[in-house]
Design a protein that fits this description.
Layout (H helix, E strand, L loop, with lengths): L2 H44 L3 H6 L8 H10 L6 H11 L3 E12 L2 E11 L1 H4 L7 H10 L3 E13 L2 E4 L5 H4 L20 E6 L6 E3 L4 E7 L12 E8 L2 E5 L3 E2 L5 E6 L9 E2 L2 E2 L2 E9 L4 E10 L14 E3 L2 H6 E6 L6 E3 L2 E2 L5 E8 L7 E8 L2 H4 L11 E5 L2 E3 L2 E9 L9 E9 L5 E9 L9
Parallel strand pairs: 6-15, 19-26
Antiparallel strand pairs: 1-2, 2-3, 3-4, 5-7, 7-11, 8-9, 8-10, 8-14, 12-13, 14-15, 16-26, 17-20, 18-19, 20-24, 21-22, 21-25, 23-24, 25-26
Helix pairs in contact: 4-6
Length: 451
């Protein structure tokens, strides 16, 4: 027996075994390093950390693709609402390294990284009233979809670096960032082109019974037609809400008219039958709370009659201090029998002179009616010395529309007014100061005959 041969053969076996151990040890450590590199990549994908991913890859930080990665993960290519949606989806991403998929060949390795993401595709098949509702749906979503990234690594200077950053497999993870969220992606605060106040001059409207804000939209608003996006407008007077409209569809028209008067709000504050003075604001808002536009207008009221004797309107003031406190004055159409500003048909059963005054007015007025059969006889009436046909005291009437005096004269039941002229004089309560005179005529025929 040649023992030397056996010895040599045994030594060869030992050498081969030793080499095998060395090879297995090297392979085992390579796999561990690749898995560690893959795990770090996965974590930074979840965090949307572009700079860290570039550190872990072979991609040049100065390359165009590197800049696209930074801007893409930062949402710079997205509108504000799509960014909210994508941020919600991003927070649902969870990764898992598929260890069985690892393959190492020298200085190259591949491994699959599986990402579970909220099933945003299914969510986007539903309808939402606003972006906040969609974001909540994403947060509450239990269903997920899986996206597999085949990560490829190369070993450089003893470190495993990602070699297919920004490749198609990598970009597939972020398909949700290209989702079309439809009208929810629109910035509703930018759909208004311009606003105009009807009848305004230098931001002011004088003696108006109605406010109208014309809102014109840009062409983007057409995308909202039929999408169920609603809007409404709110009116404020001196900062206090006085009216809120019903909701209307946004996108159905290229312009809307936001009106405010006693038609919209029967309790609107009035002065002299005009909207009371103050700063009015009309704000147009989408149902999701986005303010489409807001505009202010200054409203003033100036109604003053001065002089002596009766005017063509049927009244005139004799005291300037009192006149300044009167906001409006008129012979009112009590029963629909008024023919002109200060004349009534003979079939009327009441004539009444009404004044709206400043809210500070608290005094009672003394008033008296005088009768004249003709215009020439009117000129002979002396309201300070003649005995009136009837007299009385008028107290200020305060309601939600303001403060008023109603100086009326009614016929007795079954009686009618005698055709002619009725002269009204009103004084301070102690009758020491004449405030004004108003005159109306009862015509000889019924009101309908003059129409």
């Amino acid at each position: 027996m040649k023992t030397g041969y056996i010895t040599k053969k045994a030594g060869a076996v030992l050498l081969i075994f030793s080499m095998a151990l060395s090879f297995c040890s090297c392979s085992m450590f390579s796999k561990k390093d690749v898995l560690a590199a893959a795990k770090e990549v996965a974590e930074n994908i979840e965090d949307f950390d572009a700079e860290k991913l570039l550190d872990l890859s072979t991609l040049s930080k100065k390359s165009e693709k590197a800049e696209d990665l930074r801007k893409g993960l930062n949402g710079e290519y997205l509108d504000e609402n799509t960014k909210k949606f994508c941020d919600a989806v991003r927070k649902t991403i969870r990764s898992e390294i598929i260890e069985d998929s690892i393959s190492i060949k020298g200085k190259e390795a591949t491994v699959d990284i599986e990402f579970k993401i909220a099933d945003y595709k299914a969510l986007l098949r539903e309808d939402y009233k606003d972006i906040d509702e969609l974001v909540k749906a994403v947060k509450d979503c239990d269903d997920t979809i899986k996206v597999t990234y085949g990560a490829r690594f190369v070993k450089e200077d003893g470190q495993w670096l990602l070699d297919n950053l920004m490749g198609s497999s990598f970009l597939g993870i972020f398909d949700f960032m290209d989702s079309d969220i439809g009208v929810l992606a629109m910035d509703l605060t930018k759909v208004v082109d311009k606003t105009t106040w009807n009848g305004a001059s230098d931001g002011t409207i004088k003696n108006t019974k109605r406010l109208s804000l014309i809102v014109e939209f840009n062409s983007d608003v057409s995308k909202l037609k039929g999408k169920g996006v609603k809007m409404y407008y709110t009116v404020y007077k001196d900062g206090k809400e006085v009216f809120k409209s019903n909701a209307a569809e946004l996108g159905s028209k290229t312009r809307v008219q936001c009106d405010y008067s006693t038609t919209q709000n029967p309790s609107a504050e009035l002065r002299s039958n005009y909207l009371a003075a103050g700063t009015y604001t009309i704000t147009l808002t989408a149902e999701n709370g986005a303010v489409l536009c807001s505009s202010d207008i200054n409203v003033t009221v100036a109604v003053t009659e001065t002089g002596t004797g009766s005017s063509s309107k049927g009244y005139a003031f004799s005291n300037s201090d009192f006149a300044r406190k009167v906001l409006t004055a008129t012979w009112v159409n009590v029963d629909g029998k008024r023919v002109s500003a200060n004349s009534y048909g003979v079939d009327t059963n009441a004539v009444s002179f009404q004044m709206q005054v400043d809210n500070s007015m608290e005094e009672n007025l003394y008033f008296a009616y005088y009768y004249a059969a003709s215009a020439s006889e009117v000129l002979k009436i002396n309201v300070k010395t003649d005995k009136p046909a009837i007299s009385g005291t008028a107290k200020p009437i305060v309601n939600t529309n303001g403060t008023f005096y109603a100086l009326g004269l009614k016929t007795k039941e079954g009686k009618s007014f005698k055709p002619g002229f009725y002269v009204l004089a009103f004084f301070s309560e102690d009758q020491s100061t004449l405030y004004g005179i108003a005159e109306c005529q009862v015509l000889p025929n019924s009101a309908s005959s003059y129409k």
